């Protein structure tokens, strides 16, 4: 089977809802599905997290990170960590864990390196999206963080299946865009029960169109993706800004500029990126 046939087969399976998650990811997917239930309150979320030793340890570590522990008061319990973070932030962290787990199942060193770079890109994009949403586009920062975390989840899923199909991702970046990204992306986002408005924001990345200054969640995500200092190793989006051009993006925001906001927020972005790397 050549790689185009493999792409089409995986995409067709995904389109039918037949997603083959590794065993290590299944429990996290079930947890994510539980957390998106509107009836899931903080105490229930704490019990769910506490049932997974790995997630429990990482949740406490992230709650004690610079990004979330502004008071400097350490927390030693899962319940305290979940109360500090809140259910919505916890949803983002579980999504981040799922993404990392998909990349962590790879045996091939080349695929592992690609997954590691993709996660670096994801963490930078998510951190920038939260800051841009709060300071520039004024969309919900928690939603922007979540969208940044899941915006490449289809690519992580493709990487998790690549070991079954040698050479699957060896072609040109456009092959992934044409044969897998949209179908796999939508299917995996659906399996994670990602809200429709977030899915639509991620879909905006597949068209590569955005407004400056950013106005919507999709615009916010696209700008963050352009500004991320680590590019996605999977593809260059149609119309994507080159890394050199991205460094020149600037525009007026109130009494300041985007660059001034990014300079002021550098420590904040780095703290959040570092916290995400703990997932």
Structural shape:
globular
Q: How can the largest sheet be summarized?
A: 2 strands, antiparallel
In which order are the strands of the major sheet placed?
1-2
Poorly predicted residue ranges: none
- What is the CATH top level name? Mainly Alpha
What's the total helix number?
15
Radius of gyration: 18 Å
CATH architecture, by name, is Orthogonal Bundle
Question: Total domains, how many?
Answer: 1
Percentage of residues in strands: under 5%
Distance between the termini: 35 Å
The fold-level CATH name is Hypothetical protein af1432
N-to-C series of helices and strands: HHHHHHHHHHHHHEEHH
* Structure summary, number of beta strands: 2
CATH superfamily: Hypothetical protein af1432
Protein name: HDOD domain-containing protein
Domain HDOD: 21-208
Organism: Pseudoduganella lutea
Pfam family, one: HDOD
Descriptive report:
The protein is mainly alpha-helical and 279 residues long. It has a single domain (3-276), classed as Hypothetical protein af1432, CATH 1.10.3210.10. It has helices at residues 3-15, 23-35, 42-50, 53-63, 78-85, 87-104, 109-137, 141-150, 153-162, 173-191, 196-207, 217-227, 243-246, 258-264, 266-276, and strands at residues 252-253, 256-257. The protein has a two-stranded antiparallel ribbon. The longest helix is centred in the middle third of the chain and has 29 residues, at 109-137. The model has no long low-confidence stretch (mean pLDDT 86). Pfam families: HDOD.
């Amino acid at each position: 089977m050549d790689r185009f046939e493999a792409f089409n087969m995986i995409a067709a399976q995904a389109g039918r809802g037949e997603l083959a998650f590794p065993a290590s990811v299944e429990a996290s997917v079930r947890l994510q599905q539980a957390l998106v239930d509107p009836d899931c309150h903080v105490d229930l979320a704490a019990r769910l997290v506490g049932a997974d030793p790995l997630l429990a340890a990482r949740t406490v570590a992230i709650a004690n990170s610079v990004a979330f522990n502004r008071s400097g008061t350490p927390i030693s319990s899962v319940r305290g960590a979940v109360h500090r973070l809140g259910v919505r932030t916890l949803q983002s962290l579980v999504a981040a864990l799922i993404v990392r787990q998909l990349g962590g199942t790879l045996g091939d060193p080349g695929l592992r390196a690609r997954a590691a770079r993709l996660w670096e890109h994801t963490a930078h994009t998510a951190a920038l999206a939260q800051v841009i949403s709060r300071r520039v586009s004024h969309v919900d920062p928690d939603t922007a963080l979540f969208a940044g975390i899941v915006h490449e989840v289809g690519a992580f899923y493709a990487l998790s299946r690549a070991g079954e199909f040698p050479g699957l991702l060896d072609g040109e970046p456009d092959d992934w865009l044409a044969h897998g990204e949209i179908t796999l992306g939508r299917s995996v986002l659906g399996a994670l029960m990602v809200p429709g408005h977030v899915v639509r924001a991620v879909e905006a990345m597949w068209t590569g169109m955005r407004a400056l200054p950013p106005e919507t969640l999709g615009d916010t995500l696209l700008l963050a993706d352009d500004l991320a200092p680590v590019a996605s190793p999977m593809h260059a989006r149609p119309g994507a800004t080159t890394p050199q051009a991205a460094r020149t993006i600037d525009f007026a925001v109130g009494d300041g500029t985007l660059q001034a906001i990014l300079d002021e927020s550098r420590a904040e972005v780095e703290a959040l990126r570092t916290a995400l790397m703990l997932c």
